[in-house]
């Protein structure tokens, strides 16, 4: 296993990451604007950082919502190298996209042997709407009682116009279940489509 030039857990901004890692070699960035550009779905730890959050975020966004993906493409140790904490994730193209958005939903991966979604972010109303939509699909979620609160003002989920968004932490068990992934995508898309109308 190769020695990394720097560990992402020490980074405090995207500029710190850029000093050590290169776009097109270590990571890829994708930005698409949807038919409802005021709603964005973001995977700040996509690709091989937190698999398969890029695919899930893109599926939720479809063509309807704007989508930002930061994807690790290194051969190894993507998490160690590229997992810039959400409160420090200030990549300029992402911030530019979110500056025009009323609702922001970020998709993350976390540990966990139970199939569930841990909801956070400063937009408590949006998180509650998502929890209800997930319940309708038979997916367990938790709004409280976990460590992924997403409530720091600098968290990337809170960088839209309202300065409040929602954060989805998908457990490893959920991300390893194609059926559960499909249920999450259906639930979140349905909730966001209602908001768009």
Question: What can you see in these coordinates?
Answer:
This protein has 197 residues and is an alpha/beta fold. It has one domain (8-196): Poly-gamma-glutamate hydrolase, zinc-binding motif (Aminopeptidase). 32% of the residues lie in helices and 24% in strands. The protein has 7 helices and 7 strands. It has a 7-stranded mixed β-sheet with strand order 1-3-2-4-7-5-6, sandwiched between helices. Helix 5 crosses helix 7 (178-196). The radius of gyration is 16 Å and the shape is globular. The N and C termini lie far apart (50 Å).
**CATH homologous superfamily (4th level) name:** Poly-gamma-glutamate hydrolase, zinc-binding motif
| CATH fold title | Aminopeptidase
Q: Supply the CATH architecture.
A: 3-Layer(aba) Sandwich
Provide the low-confidence segments as ranges.
Answer: none
Q: What proportion of the residues is helical, as a percent range? A: 25-40%
Q: What integer value in Å does the Rg equal?
A: 16 Å
Please report the total strand number as a whole number: 7
How many angstroms does the end-to-end distance come to?
Answer: 50 Å
Strand order, main sheet: write it out: 1-3-2-4-7-5-6
Order of helices and strands: HEEHEHHEEHEEHH
CATH class: Alpha Beta
Note the main sheet: 7 strands, mixed
């Amino acid at each position: 296993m190769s020695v990394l030039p720097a560990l992402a857990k020490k980074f405090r901004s995207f500029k710190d990451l850029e000093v050590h890692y290169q776009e097109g070699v270590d990571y890829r960035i994708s930005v698409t604007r949807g038919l409802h550009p005021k709603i964005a779905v973001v995977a700040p730890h996509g690709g091989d950082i937190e698999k398969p959050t890029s695919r899930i975020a893109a599926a939720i966004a479809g063509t309807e919502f704007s989508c930002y993906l930061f994807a690790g493409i290194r051969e190894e140790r993507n998490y160690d190298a590229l997992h810039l904490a959400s409160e420090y994730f200030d990549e300029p193209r992402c911030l530019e996209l979110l500056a025009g958005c009323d609702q922001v939903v970020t998709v993350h991966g976390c540990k966990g042997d139970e199939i569930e979604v841990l909801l956070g972010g400063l937009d408590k109303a949006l998180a509650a709407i998502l929890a209800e939509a997930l319940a309708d699909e038979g997916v367990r979620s938790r709004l409280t009682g976990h460590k992924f609160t997403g409530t720091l003002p600098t968290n990337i989920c809170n960088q839209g116009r309202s300065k409040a968004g929602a954060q989805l932490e998908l457990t490893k068990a959920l991300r390893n279940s194609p059926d559960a992934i499909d249920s999450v995508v259906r639930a979140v898309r349905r909730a966001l489509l209602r908001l768009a109308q």
